[in-house]
C-alpha cells in the first residue's frame, strides 16, 4: 500500500469491498456513538446525546445524517457528470467517515476526559490550569484535527473519483454544497 492508496482507496479497491467495509464501520460508528453518549448529527460532526436516548434514536439520527449527505452529493454528482454511480457516492460518504471513529475514542480516554474536566472547571482562572492538562488537550486537538482533515481528503477524493471533476468551479461548488449540507443536517437532526 502506498500514499496514493491511503488517501484515495477508491482507485485501488473494488466498490463492493469498499461498501462492505463502509457498512461495517457505519455499524461500529453507531455503537461507538451510543456508548460514548454522542450522536452523528451530520457527517464530520458529533454532538452529545440527550438524556435517555435509546440506541434506536442514535441509529435514526446517524442514518438520516448519512442519507442526507449521500442524497445531496449524489444529485450534485449527477449534475456535474451524468455517469456518476450511486454506489460510488455511497462509498464516498461511508469510507470518509471511518477515521472519525478514532476521534470518538480519543475523547473517551480517561486522562483526556479528566484534562477536559479540569480545564472546564478552571476556565475563569487561567493560572489554575495545569500544564499537563493543556498539553493533553492540545495534543488531543491536534490528533482530532489531523483525523478530520484526513476524513475530508477521503470525502473529496471519493467524490472526485466518482464524478471525474476537474474544473476548479466544480470543486468549489462541491465544497460549498458539502459545507451547507453539514450545517443543515446539524440544524435538522
From TrEMBL:
<feature type="transmembrane region" description="Helical">
    <location>
        <begin position="129"/>
        <end position="156"/>
    </location>
</feature>
<dbReference type="Pfam" id="PF04893">
    <property type="entry name" value="Yip1"/>
</dbReference>
<dbReference type="InterPro" id="IPR006977">
    <property type="entry name" value="Yip1_dom"/>
</dbReference>
<feature type="transmembrane region" description="Helical">
    <location>
        <begin position="55"/>
        <end position="77"/>
    </location>
</feature>
<feature type="transmembrane region" description="Helical">
    <location>
        <begin position="18"/>
        <end position="35"/>
    </location>
</feature>
<keyword id="KW-1133">Transmembrane helix</keyword>
<keyword id="KW-0472">Membrane</keyword>
<feature type="transmembrane region" description="Helical">
    <location>
        <begin position="89"/>
        <end position="109"/>
    </location>
</feature>
<protein>
    <submittedName>
        <fullName>YIP1 family protein</fullName>
    </submittedName>
</protein>
<keyword id="KW-0812">Transmembrane</keyword>
<feature type="domain" description="Yip1">
    <location>
        <begin position="19"/>
        <end position="184"/>
    </location>
</feature>
<feature type="transmembrane region" description="Helical">
    <location>
        <begin position="168"/>
        <end position="188"/>
    </location>
</feature>
Amino acid at each position: 500500500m502506498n500514499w496514493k492508496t491511503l488517501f484515495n482507496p477508491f482507485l485501488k479497491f473494488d466498490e463492493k469491498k469498499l461498501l462492505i467495509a463502509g457498512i461495517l464501520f457505519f455499524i461500529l460508528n453507531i455503537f461507538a456513538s451510543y456508548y460514548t453518549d454522542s450522536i452523528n448529527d451530520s457527517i464530520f460532526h458529533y454532538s452529545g446525546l440527550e438524556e435517555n436516548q435509546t440506541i434506536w434514536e442514535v441509529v435514526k439520527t446517524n442514518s438520516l445524517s448519512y442519507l442526507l449527505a449521500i442524497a445531496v452529493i449524489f444529485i450534485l454528482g449527477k449534475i456535474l457528470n451524468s455517469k456518476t454511480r450511486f454506489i460510488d457516492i455511497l462509498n464516498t460518504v461511508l469510507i470518509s467517515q471511518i477515521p472519525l471513529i478514532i476521534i470518538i475514542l480519543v475523547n473517551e480516554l480517561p486522562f483526556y476526559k479528566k484534562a477536559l474536566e479540569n480545564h472546564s472547571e478552571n476556565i475563569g482562572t487561567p493560572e489554575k490550569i495545569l500544564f499537563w492538562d493543556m498539553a493533553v488537550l492540545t495534543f488531543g486537538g491536534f490528533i482530532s484535527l489531523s483525523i478530520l482533515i484526513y476524513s475530508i481528503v477521503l470525502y473529496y477524493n471519493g467524490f472526485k473519483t466518482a464524478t471525474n471533476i476537474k474544473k476548479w468551479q466544480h470543486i468549489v461548488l462541491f465544497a460549498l454544497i458539502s459545507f451547507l449540507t453539514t450545517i443543515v443536517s446539524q440544524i435538522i437532526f
